[in-house]
Specification:
Elements lengths: L10 H29 L30 E2 L5 E2 L7 H8 L30
């Protein structure tokens, strides 16, 4: 097929070119769907990236509610997930610490002192 200059084409020629392209793409799609059906893979018209979507794993925490970890002075809460809320960002900008707004403040984790393994002396 010779190269066509799109700039020099009028609207009718562009529309006919579009129709040719659509026809060729439909032929190619039908051909690929036949190949997939021979392989036993069902295509649902969403594209090849969606073919195995039902088999993937989801995160165990997706969609679960998490109790709030931080509460602001006006009762606003935040669970610590996602973007930091505006009320908290503004208060942190004013110089407050994040720990000031913790609801169930747990004592900071202590560093464990790991005992060194004693090595056996070689004889």
């Amino acid at each position: 097929m010779p190269a066509r200059s799109l700039k020099g084409m009028d609207v009718d020629a562009l529309l006919s070119l579009r129709a040719e392209i659509d026809k060729r793409l439909d032929e190619k799609r039908n051909e690929l769907e036949k190949q997939l059906s021979r392989l036993g893979i069902e295509g649902n018209g969403r594209g090849l990236g969606q073919l195995g979507a039902g088999r993937g794993r989801r995160s165990a925490m997706k969609g679960r509610k998490v109790p709030p970890k931080y509460r602001g002075p006006e009762g606003d809460t935040w669970a610590g997930r996602g973007a930091r809320p505006r009320w908290l960002a503004a208060l942190l900008k004013q110089g407050h610490k994040l720990e000031e707004f913790a609801i169930n403040s747990v004592a900071p984790a202590r560093k464990r002192v790991v005992a060194k393994k004693s090595r056996r002396k070689k004889k």
